[in-house]
Amino acid sequence: MHPLLEKDHQQLIDLIDALDKCVLKGNSINQATKYLDAFVTLAEDEFKNEERIMEAYKYPEIIDHKKEHVRLLEQLHTLQSQLSKGQTPFGKDYMQLLRNWLETHLLDTDNRLEEFLYQINADSDKKNR
Ligand SMILES: [Fe+2]
Ligand SMILES: [Fe+2]
Predict the structure, then answer these.
(1) What is the residue-wise DSSP string for 23-79?
(2) How many CB atoms lie under 10 A from the CB of residue 122?
(3) What is the CATH number of domain 9-128?
(4) Exposed, middle or buried, 19 (CB in 10 Å: 0-12/13-18/19+)?
(5) Model confidence at 129, in pLDDT bands (50, 70, 90)?
(6) Residue 52 Cα, ligand 1 centroid: separation in angstroms?
(7) What's the DSSP call for residue 108?
(8) Of 118, 90, 85, nearest to 27 (Cα)?
């Protein structure tokens, strides 16, 4: 993980694991809400952090990357509002979708940002030599 992207993606994955298990076991809505809320807070923080970095370094893919963040947050906020109305909106399929989506973002979209940041470092090292 690049030092600038300090928030740990692993934490996001761990929380989605916890939520997934919670849903599979049919645990209470309260429990699911707790995990979902923690996940959303962490994701919002993490996305903001990345967006600040992308702006600071004039990352060329910033618009598309931000769009993906917005899309994931929309899905998450929909889940939150359904849960708050006492609905249990996530079947196994939905959780799978969310997980795949998140992992694709982390492995693909975030990875490209990370490579870009390493490239900048390498370039400025060369200049300073
Ligand atoms: Fe990320
Ligand atoms: Fe991202």
Answers:
(1) HHTT--HHHHHHHHHHHHHHHHHHHHHHHHHHHHTT-TTHHHHHHHHHHHHHHHHHH
(2) 9
(3) 1.20.120.50
(4) buried
(5) confident
(6) 12
(7) I
(8) 90
Determine the distance separating the centroid of ligand 2 and the alpha carbon of 83, expressed in angstroms.
Answer: 25
Structure tokens at 104: 């694709």
Q: What is the DSSP letter of 106?
A: I
Q: How far is the CA of 107 from the centre of ligand 2 (A)?
A: 10
Q: What pTM does this model have?
A: 0.86
Among the bound ligands, the one closest to the CA of 69: 2
Q: Measure 129 CA to ligand 1 centroid, in angstroms.
A: 31
Of the candidates 52, 91, 57, 51, the residue with the CA atom closest to the CA atom of residue 73: 51
| Closest of 43, 52, 55 to residue 9, by C-alpha | 43
- CA of 78 relative to ligand 2 center, distance in Å: 20
For 60-97, write each residue's pLDDT tens digit: 999 999 999 999 999 889 888 888 887 765 666 677 77
- Residue 50 pLDDT exceeds 80: yes
